[in-house]
Amino acid sequence: MNISEIKSARAGDSYFKVLHPSGLTVYVYPKEGYNSAYAIIGTKYGSVNTCFSLDGGEKITVPDGIAHYLEHKLFESEDGDAFARYAKTGASANAYTSFEKTCYLFSCTDKFEESFEILLDFVQSPYFTAETVAKEQGIIGQEIKMYDDSPDWRVMFNMLENMYHHHPVKIDIAGTVESIAEITAEKLYQCYNTFYNLNNMALCVAGNVTVDQVLSICDRMLKPCEKHTIENYFEDEPYEVVAPYVEQSFPVSVPLFNLGFKENADKPLDEKRLAHTDILLEMLASSTSEMYQQLMDDGLINTSFSFELFEGPGYRSVIFGGESRAPKQAAEQIKQYIAKVKAEGLSKEDFENARKSVYGDVISALNSVGSIANTILDHHFNGNEKFTYIDAVADTTFEDVQQRLMQMLDVNNCTLSVVKNGEEA
Amino acid sequence: MSQLQRTELAGGAYFNSVQDSRFKTVLIEANLIVPLSAETASANALLTYVMSRSCRAYPTYRSLCRKLSALYGAELSVSLGKAGDRQILSFTLTGLDDRYALDGESIAAQLSELLCQMLFEPNVKDNSFLPSETDQGKRELLDLIDSEFNEKRVYAIGQTVSAMCKDEVFGVRRYGTAEGVREQTPQSLYDTWKNVLRTADLEIIFVGDSQPDKAASVFAKAFANIQRDPVAITTQFVAKADKVARVSEEMDVSQAKLVMGFRGGRALPDKQVIASQLMAAVLGGTATSKLFCNVREKQSLCYYCAARYDKHKGIMMIDSGVEGDNIQKLESGIMHEIEDMQNGNITDFELEATKLAVINAYYSSNDTVRGIGSWYMNQIFDGEIRSIEEMAKRIKAVTKEEVVEAAKLLSLDTVYVLKNKGDAQ
């Protein structure tokens, strides 16, 4: 077994990376003195993977929302559901599906080994029947409707629909009531057998555990998988956004907006470019920035304002969003500010503050076993490594950030989405 | 769990600290506890937001943000809370531990200093806050009040509590009202500040590895010149509902919301309230709870259906999102589970699984600085300071009979429904 220790002098922490013979990549991040342990196993399979082939076979297209549906159904096995099994250990268990991955997790302060066995067991034991699949329609149908009423969710998906011509990232993770009606047990098995191969998955355990403890259970529980070739198909996506503006009427008392800047996306950003981007966005849009203060002084945003780098397989953009009484003006001011700094350059003082601030955030996040395990998995699926990223943040120079600015945030290729009360329009 | 050190700085003002070397961050938080009342809630809420925007040493919002950023991205958050008939104004600062400062400065000492400046040396002139800062604070708070309407789950619960407690102090919202906020002036806000400093109970809590002595002395000095006259607060308790009130609203929504408010028959300082809390958890607090297993999993009626007991006020709220046509079915389903408990139908598995889940959550809170901070603050609000071990012991000691007794004390007070204009009655 290939075990390597990854150390960070800056963080004063270290963790282990193991290439397990079963095919699974395993990370173990012991935290001395902690009561809790947090384990998460994920597959590189999310809502965008709706068209694929296995080992050069025929191209298969599956209904929207199937990855999320599969996540719900995997909790059930022939002899009951995993929640009932966890109930005997006291662990707090959950799962989530995002655009690019599906993850199953638990945290516990006692009986780690029992809970860990449950996790590894149910993730490797699919059990789908026509009856169990039918039962989930009502539950997920209500989950979809709950999100339909969420203005934050709507404003984002309306924006994505106007940003992407073809890419499935514009489709709701849970699908629609109509698309999930097409899901069958057979289709679930097809997706499971393609993507829930240990070679396509990774595991991370952080907290009150040792490497030996984790590996001895992995050795016992993991069923070796043959390596397969998975091909995911995405239609060619043009550089340009679909339309510059979209608006939806909604029962809200404060309007919301999302302003997204589309970029070409070849492969995920590496640690360095990610660090440059994070520091740049902090300089441009955090509460210390000139842009934020101006928007605030002019009454165009409030403290709900946020920004994020949004990237995954075949898509990358930067999204600014929040509540605003005058969303169009807020968006205009953001675009003008970006054009201005591109022409006149960034401030060195802002750079120093932003670098310290991002560095402080990433070090602080190492307090939380949940945050550690989730970010290690994120980095893994993007081909990156956590401590390399922390070093990249500390080593970023002003010139790096200047250079990055010139490659992104094209003010002629962005789209604004607004959700507001129809009666006020 | 690390021990709490508690010292009285002045009448009703305490400095609490927990020393713990496991974390990379420190937390310092001030909680000002005042009586909840319709007359003062809006003024207190506005004061909290205005005080967190600037102070004499950092007279603009930007200068304050830059100070935080220079302290390695320290974070300031403020919040308003209710614990029974108390309104709690919280100012929380978190930052890197001194060990990680790149140039040997003490971040913890600077954070304590900053918190003190915000509380005791605000941005005032001639017995008045600055009009511009007051206006910005108002805008922020009014947006916050309005945005509660945006999230329908939050809105529905808020409407239920308001209807249920319309003749009680507890019916006052934590932010007060929009009208109340608009009425405030820079002068009235100054009087509110003076009044709060004189009458509020103050609980400061420090969690981290750094020596808390310095922080304690900073606060002790600040209090030396303040005349203290804290007021005692008791929460009005209503043991039983006479009849069921029904409230409904119509709106343009995809999913209907059902909220049921019960009188629980017990509130603090009654020690048996712990059995009522456990009862609510058995009913709808976990993924093996009666509501989750039956109305969600078996009947496929909803995605979420949760029960929560408020130990200060002695009420229990159940909330769910459902198809408009199924509201009646859901209400009957919920009542059926409650009657089942009242008839003694609680399995050993249900009880033990709930206890394990609650205890797991207790111990997990000990692994974050925020978790430790809020554990002890909650104990202080409860009027009795207990360690996690002690609370776990008490949970374990609750018997099935006590849970059944607690269920028998429930009386339905208010049923609130939010539905689409086209939904059936």
Structural commentary:
- The complex is a heterodimer of chains A (425) and B (425).
- With 425 residues, chain A is of the alpha+beta class.
- Chain A folds into 2 domains: 2-232, Metalloenzyme, LuxS/M16 peptidase-like (Cytochrome Bc1 Complex, Chain A, domain 1); 245-424, Metalloenzyme, LuxS/M16 peptidase-like (Cytochrome Bc1 Complex, Chain A, domain 1), CATH 3.30.830.10.
- Chain A is built from 15 helices and 17 strands.
- In chain A, the strands form 4 sheets. In chain A, strands 1-2-3-11-4-10-9 form a 7-stranded mixed sheet, sandwiched between helices.
- In chain A, helix 9 (271-285) packs across helix 14 (386-395) and helix 9 (271-285) crosses helix 15 (398-407).
- The radius of gyration of chain A is 23 Å and the shape is globular.
- The N and C termini of chain A lie far apart (64 Å).
- The mean pLDDT of chain A is 95.
- Chain B has 425 residues and is α+β, with helices and mostly antiparallel strands.
- Chain B has 2 domains: 4-223, Metalloenzyme, LuxS/M16 peptidase-like (Cytochrome Bc1 Complex, Chain A, domain 1, 2-Layer Sandwich), CATH 3.30.830; 245-420, Metalloenzyme, LuxS/M16 peptidase-like (Cytochrome Bc1 Complex, Chain A, domain 1, 2-Layer Sandwich).
- Helix content of chain B is 44%, strand content 22%.
- In chain B, strands 1-2-6-3-5-4 form a 6-stranded mixed sheet, sandwiched between helices. In chain B, strands 7-11-8-10-9 form a 5-stranded mixed sheet, with helices on both faces.
- In chain B, a hairpin with a 2-residue loop joins strand 4 (75-83) and strand 5.
- In chain B, helix 1 crosses helix 7.
- The radius of gyration of chain B is 23 Å and the shape is globular.
- The termini of chain B are far apart.
- Chains A and B meet through helix 2, helix 4, helix 10 and helix 12 of A and helix 2, strand 5, helix 4, strand 9 and helix 12 of B.
